[in-house]
Design goal:
The complex is a heterodimer. Chain A is mostly helical. Chain A is 73% helix and 2% strand. Chain A has one domain: MetI-like (MetI-like fold, Orthogonal Bundle). Chain B has 15 helices and no strands. The chains are: A mainly alpha, B mainly alpha.
Chain lengths: 295, 284
Amino acid sequence: MSSEKRVVFRATWLPWLLIAPQAAVVAVFFFWPAGQALLQSLQQSDAFGTSVEWVGLENFQHLWNDASYWASFQTTAVFSVLVAGLGLSISLCLAYFADRVVRGTSIYRTLLIWPYAVAPAVAGVVWLFLFSPSIGVVAYGLHHIGFEWDSLLNSHHAMALIVMAAVWKQLSYNFLFFLAGFQSIPKSLIEAAAIDGAGPWRRFWTIQFPLLSPTSFFLLITNITYAFFDTFGIVDAATKGGPGKDTAIMVYKVYFDGFKAMDLGGSAAQSVVLMAIVIVLTVVQFRFVEKKVNY
Amino acid sequence: MIERNRFMDVLAHTVLILGVMVVAFPVYLTFVASTHTAQEVVQVPMPLWPGEHLLDNYKTALFGDAAKQVSDMAVAHMMWVSLVSALCIAIGKISISLLSAFAIVYFRFPFRMAFFWAVFLTLMLPVEVRIGPTYQVVSDLGMLNTYAGLSVPLIASATATFLFRQFFMTLPDELVEAARMDGAGPMRFFKDMLLPLSTTSMAALFVIQFIYGWNQYLWPLLVTTQENMYPVVVGIKSMIPSGGDAQTEWNLVMATAMLAMIPPALVVMLMQKWFVKGLVDSDK
């Protein structure tokens, strides 16, 4: 933020007019609601919203002692680790080969990036259809090779389903960044190593993978953010948080408790916890970006 | 190419082709299912080749079926809602951010940096984490079931402002000097210099924000209670009754899924250059 324009325009009211639309939107739809969330997290209201009382940190204490909240925390952790881990390794592998082929890199890129455009909820519907225990083609195929798939009753299967859908959708994003990362590594480094007799496997682990670490770290953070916040549609469409509450990730629980169970205080407290998580993730990401500039 | 290695070349293409196939497989089956009758789709296993009901299904999905009152929500209308709100979000975000970035970079005024950091904070709180109170605000303003309610709360975001600020900072100061020497005022400078210079950034941002807007799910789910304001992404979900597979007209659901995917997928593939630029820029 150190750099500033030396030459500027002089005007008194014009800049205010220019920032007015953004300021209004941010104030009304952002700061006001965020403030309300903070307030509500300290309040308890009944289901009809007729009476409100201050309860201090009681909502947070409830969360702390609520086994179902910890369960959803755990579900989210497992989910995001799986999504980030699988998504990153698969796309790293694809990007490695796409960078390697002499011809066709851009064709493969075109064919691999479009899932980015698919809405999470639509992805959830499509994967639900493929893996539906009664009519899904893949479920049928699995049945044939002796695997009884039932994402409606088996929570591990349900988790596998949303992980697959989430990884599938995020693959293109990771792939693009990894491919750009591979392409930015100077070819001379690889050539020098090849002349010294290092094979592809060795070169990957000693040169390319370390040089990709900034990209990988960046993608790790964005994938965790994605798994936490952008996968609501997948979960709602594919499993509705079920069976039971076994795939109810935290964002889903905020929605469910706030809008279905009408527990506003509890939902707001959960929102505040989520805000804290995003803030930590964003700070980590920005810290890292600062470093990347010097890299 | 570093060395000749037949094995690695074959392996590379095999892995990539496999990858492309696995990625495309769900959508291929979606397409196949959208070309059969509902009865054929729920057969186990469903046919793996496209059937003959492509036109019928898409017509029924798009314009509704007058004979059966089962899925009377026409997808054509939902797609219109999606299109309008996605355009409002993309254009709204770009315009308010252009203006405020211009103000931040080219003027000195009190609380300038405070405003900048206030906008920056919005980066940290995606709509998902503040749905409850934001919903109340929108409902108090009477914006439920309106295009404004669908789009305006989502244009409160910092990414675009950041991007334009970053871009304006890279422009040489001589531009302003030249403009001032020629007697151009700030708005003239904005219109005749900044806007033309920003078109690439605007296009890149537009692609990303259009897809973002089109794919919104949680927010429209909350602020729309009337079926005639459902965007297609919400509408498709409501076509699957919670009862189970038997009542679902999967062929129509899958036709709708195809229709919901096509516009953003086309935008990504046709505007690939800007899409990639937009992704890379907006995630810095």
